[in-house]
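Homework help board

Subject: predicted structure for assignment chain

Our instructor gave us this sequence and asked us to write out the predicted structure in token form, then describe one feature. I got the tokens but I'm not sure how to describe them. Can anyone check?
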Amino acid sequence: MYNGGDSTKDEGQHTDNYDKPREECGVFGMYNTIAVSDVAAACAYYALYALQHRGQESAGICVGDDGLMRVHKGLGLVPEVFTPRVLDSLGSGNMSIGHVRYSTTGAPQIENAQPLLVHHVKGSMALVHNGNLTNANELREELELLGGIFHTTSDTEVIAYTITQARLSEPSIEKAVAAAMHKLKGAYSLVIMSPRKLIAVRDPQGFRPLCMGRLGDAVMFASESCAFSAIGAEFIRDIEPGEVVVASPSGVTGIRDHCGGKSRLCVMEYVYIARNDSVLEGESVHLARKRAGAFLARSHPVDADVVIGMPESGLDAALGYAEESGIPYGVGISRNRYVGRTFIQPNQSDRNDAVHIKLTPLKATIEGKRVVVVEDSVIRGTTTRHILNLLRNAGAKEIHMRIASPPFKHPCYFGIDVDNYEDLLANRFAGDEAIAREIGADSVRYLSIDDISRIAPVGDAQLCVGCFSGAYPIDPPKETSKRKFERPLSEAPPKPLKKPPTD
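My token output:
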């Protein structure tokens, strides 16, 4: 089943200025030995609802029933795409996979919505993907020269082709997946459905999270543990970097040919992307954010009357800053939860109006006060400037911005949609004082790279901080444009990225 969704949605929103990184995607999968009514579709629905923060552009579910795969996907939020009638139409099955998407490679259009269902000479396969390949362009060109015809602009289709090509010479789907991993470079957390198996895969660097849970006899996989909580499942463990886990009638087995490397989980998962009730690599996201706030208070103290946080992911860091500094914590900004995210507005004027409706300063907390405003990150600065102006108008005497991450100066090639040096606030203005003037703060201070690397003690693993330092765990792509295959043939190729100015 296919739902065209809102194909008229403004694709220009892809380049809107917004102060947050666009959170890549969320994936889910469930395998049970028997089909139970509509449980497969319902579990995927509630899990995707819990993962909605990871992608608000499109949603999709595929249900597997004895080799028959039924797919529904569309543009929009989970409850918009999946009405009760649609969920009923997916029927019963013993497997399901689901996806919420915010595009990194691939424009916001229905063709790029997942799950991706393919039929090949060895059978059928459906897959969902979180991450971004660094060699997608090279692989796609190689496959096209072999006769491959692509229907999307997403690198997920490149992954599907690479697996199905490997399947021609491998005895099983899981062996084909393991073989394909030798060719795939970059970030990928996958859940793959074959007629009789459900397979979870995480890239050898572990850039993007993926974990396993159980609900009775059912085995589940998800981007974050909060998805398990939403359906009453028990979190079991994280999928290891490079691991292939297979759930089948024979039980749960695995392939560890690509294991052994240290995890390089993206630090932005802790800073902003993941839900604060999730646990990643054994570490609470909530505690990691509080720790970031405490480090900020030690490194950048200020005389102030109240500490407030930017909803939502800045609140935990603000609490950590307040506890460490001894400055009272207050609720200074009220958030209207029924207003959509501001980046979907077609122009900056509309976005500012949406921010005004969505976020309201609380005068009782900030009027006449010296205010510390704690934010998790600032990318471009436009919305931050507007919010600080609202605080000024509400009577804040001083505003001291404390950002619980280092300056965002470099593109991300591993699943976060920030790929332009020129748009980044920290590259457009030299030094904290210049940035403070630009956004209307009395002072601005950032967390150091050393401190951001310590917010989540993850054993001997190392967090990826490439977006702050410019030092990436693996080589960035040779082709700098992530959207090479999205432009019409009549368009000129995109300009190469400019290097950031030296400090």
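Reply (TA_rk): Your tokens look well-formed. For the description, you could write something like this. Residues 25 and 101 are 5 Å apart (CA to CA). That's the kind of observation they're looking for.
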